[in-house]
Write a structure and sequence with these properties.
three-stranded antiparallel beta sheet, 24% helix, alpha/beta, six-stranded mixed beta sheet, binds inosinic acid, binds magnesium ion, single chain
Length: 180
Amino acid sequence: MHQDIKTVLLTEEQIQSKVKELAAQLCRDYADKDPVLIGVLKGVVVFFGDMMKHMEIPCQIDFMGISSYGSGTTAGKLQLRYDVTADLTGRHVIVLEDIFDTGSSLQFTYEHLLKKNPASLKICTLLDKPERRREGVTVKADYTGYVIPNDFVVGYGLDYDEHYRNLPYIGILKPEVYAK
Ligand code: IMP
Ligand code: MG
């Protein structure tokens, strides 16, 4: 795996310190709100678990699944794979995402969750690639870890063709890996 990485963009240490910072902001902003953290599977799992460990306030978790990318890096059609099970009516909801890329996934997620009448709905993303934003995307991230350049990254939950999710850091793949 490691030999397929061209550059390490964010080290494990950098990611961990950013996660603590983001969780501390959420703890401050949601201290008395008993928020529901919602993870959008699968890319978010590592970030989600790390964030949870630093949430020192009462909170609940839930997950939803949507498919955005098929195999490889080409965008596929968006569809809901699994819905949240918690009743979000009147709840303070925070969507956790691994990466805000074209924004299609977050737009879809946001609109879907808004229909469940939450008291508030905010977005927290570890990574943001603003250069890639698709026209017509109106959602914004309320909490952002790192703004990154327009490179395809893997690791810390992010995949290429369902692999590399288990790398503890975030790296840029060597171009020849896509060519395979
Ligand atoms: P969006 O709908 O284009 O914003 O894409 C969001 C989803 O696409 C993420 O949750 C990832 O699963 C995937 N994605 C976008 N950019 C990357 C990347 O650089 N590496 C790996 N997955 C990515
Ligand atoms: Mg993916």
